[in-house]
Design a protein that fits this description.
Tetracycline Repressor, domain 2
């Protein structure tokens, strides 16, 4: 028995549909069919699709930030990066990051939605840059330059790995990103 409220179900299914099809790949009719309500009922909770989108981004961003912040900051940087990758690895097959998918739909997003997606990216890039800086300090990650640039690079690489994982149905591609940053032990 599903105990989620109609509003929670609408948000949950909207996130799934966005991650699978993109923002323009579903309608309120698709959502109504999944939740078992009339489209007019959806308008009660979300008067327009942009309202639904903003709420979906906010909820998704909060959940992802909580998972990311749950990674123990006392761990060596390489291990934190591995645990971050595990968050992506657990993504259901056929789904990509909600905000990554929305970045591809940028031309059809409102300014509010674009800013929310940018905020999501910045949060992850900042966290990754802090991990890289720690890895440069503890010797577990290799990056020759600025940790901020590394944060942007890594988040873009993770997003790309999610897309290619989806394309090739090979979730392990996400760990190729982590491997690219690991300090290789010297001969000895």
């Amino acid at each position: 028995m599903n105990t989620a409220t109609t509003r929670e179900q609408l948000l949950g299914h909207a996130q799934i549909l966005i991650r699978q099809r993109g923002y323009n790949g579903f309608s309120y009719r698709d959502l109504a069919d999944r939740v078992g309500v009339k489209t007019a009922s959806i308008h009660y909770y979300f008067p327009c699709k942009d309202d639904l989108l903003i709420e979906s981004i906010g909820q998704y961003a909060a959940e992802e930030a909580s998972l990311m912040q749950g990674i123990d900051a006392a761990l060596p940087a390489f291990e934190r990066l591995n645990r971050y990758a595990a968050l992506f690895y657990g993504t259901p097959t056929g789904q990509v990051c909600l905000c990554g998918m929305l970045a591809a739909d940028l031309a059809s997003l409102s300014d509010r939605a674009r800013q929310a997606v940018q905020s999501f990216y910045r949060t992850h890039e900042h966290w990754l840059s802090e991990v890289v800086a720690a890895g440069q300090h503890d010797g577990t990650l290799e990056w020759p330059g600025d940790p901020e640039a590394a944060g942007r690079y890594l988040f873009a690489a993770f997003q790309g790995a999610l897309m290619s994982s989806r394309l090739f149905q090979t979730p392990s591609r996400i760990y190729d990103v982590v491997a690219s940053m690991r300090v290789q032990p010297g001969p000895g």
